[in-house]
Amino acid sequence: MGRAKILALFVKSTRVLAIALGVAGLAGACSSATGDPGAAPETRDIALVDDGTSVEARVPRNATLETLLRQHNVSGEVAQSLVSAVRDVFNPRDLRADRTYRITHTLDGLFREFRYQIDADRLLRVVSRAAGDGAPAFAAEVVTLPKEYALDAVGAEIGLGNSSLVGALEAQGENVQLALELATVFGGEIDFNSDLQRGDRIGVLFDRAIRNGEFAGYGEVKAAILENAGRRLVAIRMNDAEGKPAWYDEQGRSLRRQFLQSPLPFDPRVTSRFSFRRLHPVKGTYRAHLGVDYGAAYGTAVNTVASGVVEFAGTSGDAGRMVRIRHSGGYHTAYLHLSSFGPGIRPGARVEQGQLIGRVGATGSATGPHLDYRIMKDGVYVNPLTELKKMPKGEPIAGEALAAFFLTRDERLAELQARLAPPADLGK
């Protein structure tokens, strides 16, 4: 037999064998599909076709949405059209440095999708869609990211290495937002800048937010106990007569006071107290210091301690940029050496308790950034650190709601007690 015929016969035999194997494989698959108990199921890897490329990064400083897109080879026409579509749901000027984003292109380089993490709970999503005239078109939306809540509790103690509430809670693995919430809860009872002492303890019952199995912030604070200088402060969250969340002490009295104890977050410290004779650090002479100086970082938010009307907002000699507010009961407050004023802060403006009125600075006669905070009662300066402690307790909860309040109080304090492990156990 010739060499060519032998080769042809080999190829023909190989094809027949391949067909036979294919038929056998098909028969095996059919047997498995019909539920033959004697046939072992066949597992195969399925190769998925990658139809796009994505880049994840953080927004650089001074970037705009358009410049960010152009850095990823998005044409000027497409970038401008995308920014225009975004304006319907999100202000492009609110793009913030260091926030995460992701941009996706098709394999042939065309834009497909842009995602930007607005904050912990919201995501901006922009996708390309077909337009009849061939011009670029996009669908933009702000997506609320789902999360779950789990009841939790934490206890912390003010110690040598944790002299602030922020530090004490961070030592327990918590974040500054929980401390800020507690400062709001007890803001009418304690000045976290000056009143905390070593050995003070805090216990708090709260909802912990979870997204995809990871921490995603805090929900409601349900109850809290603060032991400070031998006194026991209790806060229970419950809706008031108007259905709005409010805070009450153990007897059902509102924790809301006419004045907050401090105009600043609790990280700052008292650097100079109220005095009728103090050596001025700039002038070098003895003179009255009719307020309290709080040392704080430049730009720290300054909030009004009570609702009222702005009498003055401008520059005033050694006081630098200053805001003065008139309150009910014959009280005035003043905030000196500000670097800037809050939105809408001008003479005649109405402000609500806790509203931003300015930011810490070093304007006027000052050696460094700080806030000089002052209170006047019937035209006479009084010591802010002592005057507020004289003010009456809050209004009690309505009599018909007391029974429900006491039931809620007992349930939440029992839950808090059960969840706190020694040595942070706060017994009644």
Structure description:
There is one protein chain. The chain is of the alpha+beta class and 428 residues long. It has three domains: 52-144, Nuclear Transport Factor 2, Chain: A (Roll), CATH 3.10.450.350; 148-257 and 396-419, Nuclear Transport Factor 2, Chain: A; 269-390, Glucose Permease (Domain IIA) (Distorted Sandwich), CATH 2.70.70. Helices cover 20% and strands 35% of the residues. Strands 11, 14, 15, 16, 17, 18, 19, 20, 21 and 22 form a ten-stranded antiparallel beta sheet that branches. It has a five-stranded antiparallel beta sheet with strand order 1-2-3-4-5, covered by helices on one side. It has a five-stranded antiparallel beta sheet with strand order 6-7-8-9-10, with helices on both faces. The chain is globular. 28% of the residues are buried.
List the helices and strands and how they pair.
Layout: H1 3-33, E1 52-58, H2 65-70, H3 76-86, E2 100-106, E3 111-117, E4 122-129, E5 137-144, E6 148-157, H4 165-170, H5 176-185, E7 201-211, E8 214-228, E9 231-239, E10 245-248, E11 269-272, E12 275-279, E13 286-289, E14 292-295, E15 301-303, E16 308-315, E17 321-326, E18 331-341, E19 350-351, E20 356-360, E21 370-377, E22 380-382, H6 384-387, H7 402-419
Antiparallel strand pairs: 1-2, 2-3, 3-4, 4-5, 6-7, 7-8, 8-9, 9-10, 11-14, 12-13, 14-21, 15-20, 16-17, 16-19, 17-18, 18-20, 18-21, 21-22
Based on CA inertia axes, which overall geometry fits? globular
Q: What is the distance, rounded to the nearest whole angstrom, between the alpha carbons of the first and last residues?
A: 106 Å
Q: How many domains in all?
A: 3
Number of strands: 22
Biggest sheet, open or closed, and with what strands and sense? 10 strands, antiparallel
State the name of the first-level CATH class of the largest domain: Alpha Beta
**Percentage beta strand:** 25-35%
Radius of gyration: 33 Å
Q: Kindly state the mean pLDDT as a whole number?
A: 82
Low-confidence stretches: 1-49
CATH architectural designation of the largest domain:
Roll
Category from helices, strands and their pairing: alpha+beta
- Helix segment count? 7
Multimeric state: single chain
